Known about the structure:
This protein is of the alpha/beta class. The chain has helices at 22-31, 40-48, 56-60, 75-82, 88-96, 112-117, 123-128, 133-143, 157-164, 172-199, 257-270, 295-305, 307-310, 323-329, 344-350, 407-420, 446-459, 479-487, 501-510; strands at 11-16, 35-38, 54-55, 104-108, 149-151, 215-221, 231-236, 247-251, 277-282, 285-291, 313-317, 334-339, 357-361, 374-378, 381-385, 398-399, 428-432, 435-440, 468-471, 491-494, 514-517. The protein folds into three domains: 7-199, Rossmann fold, CATH 3.40.50.1380; 245-361, Cytidine Deaminase, domain 2; 394-517, AICAR transformylase, duplication domain (Cytidine Deaminase, domain 2), CATH 3.40.140. The protein is elongated, with a radius of gyration of 30 Å. The relative contact order is 0.06.
Amino acid sequence: MRPVPDVGTRRALLSVSDKTGLVDLARGLIAEGVELISTGGTARALREAGLAVTDVREVTGHPEIMGGRVKTLHPKVHGGILARRDHAGDAADMAENAIEAIDMVVVNLYPFEEAAAAPELTRADVVEEIDIGGPAMVRAAAKNHDRVAIVTDPSQYGDVLAEIAGGGWVGETTRRSLAAMAFRKTAAYDTAISAWMAAQGDGVWDFPDRFTVGFRKELECSYGENPHQRGAYYSQVGAPQHLLGGVDVRHGKPLSYNNLLDVDAARGLVAEFPGPAVVIVKHNNPCGVSLGDDLASAYLRAMACDPVSAFGGVYAVNRTVDLALAEHLAQMFVEVLWAPGYDDDAFEVLTQKPNVRLLETSEQVRPGNPGEPVYRRVLGGLLVQDADDVREGRDTMHVVTERQPTEREWADLAFAWTVAKHVKSNAIVFAADGATVGIGAGQMSRVDSVNIATSKAIANNLPIEGSAMASDAFFPFADAPVMAIEHGATAIAHPGGSIRDGEVIEAVDALGAAMVTTGHRHFRH
């Protein structure tokens, strides 16, 4: 009877999709007396490098079958990984079935996310990229981490080799750390597959009992919202687009946590508009938004809405930045500029300022990912909701006053309503001729928001007379719309639905203004 091997047996199974660092790792293991077992392409790569390796099929006594779908799913593989060398029953089973212990498993999984993102692959092709044997070995080794080292990423190779150099082996602390990482890998892998299937329409989002989401670190920030907090940005596994997807930071300082929050707000709003548009965001609220025949004219009107707040803001545009816009921006303190491109002369002007962050996106941007749930961290848990992706326009709005809006008012109502959806509640937006003239955000009282919006318009010499006003929620009383009309607004949009809607409509009618209801509230907390 062959004695049961202990942890010093030094037998490693290598089966990797990503061959980065593979040969160097294998050489290092062989130098420490480790026997190598491998599969398919991994074994071929090792042999081409002149290294000795045993095929898994020699261990199992069975060839790879079903086009490689079944090769490591065998008791001599999983028994070798899962065996408890200090357990009498396991030792007896190993001896009876001629199973030898495997002390290290080196596996990284098929690149499923890359396959799922490849437009030329069919559904059947993507399904073939779902790894079965790899995750099974990873989970087995991670479960038995008291005895087995599970290595799942090339970045771990150097530390593992350093630890076993000179006859040592992977220590307990490292094995536990590797196992924790391994389970995170398999969880993320399964989440990516689930997300892809959901994107294919295979299942409807229905608030499952267990909500599992995977994220991948894209960026480590210098700090969080404040210098004493750490911060990082993670993209969601399987999301069709994410904040920095396809984005090239072409110039400037590294992006901060707060920059990213404001970029998210700015890019989501500018994506709402088909024509040239400029959005300026400060502390996650738009402080100036305008449409224009070109970006330069739109910028001047967006800036005019609140030039004090625009100082040090995050700017987003939906057209290539040209020289005319760049020359205006060069006179302003801009934290971040987010754009689909930059003309060469515009880029040269903007880069005269060393700190401004110039972001260029190569992706077609949408306000959000259709059907994607929205969640927010709260103490010990998450609040989860459907995305607020309702789109309203003139055809979905209902005139509730005696006077119909004019064509100009209709255009400004639709514009103000679109902006209001992106303003923190309570949100009030005044707009005229496709530009904001006053924004009131984040107040506990809707009247306070009206006061802030009108006072800013007056301070910046912007005419409220003839403007349209949008409110993200209904008016519980007539005071806010009356105040707006007295300042010069001639048309108002709000969801409607208050028990006092009749009183509000009567007050607006008495002042000769037009009012429409949208039917949907757009709170944004």
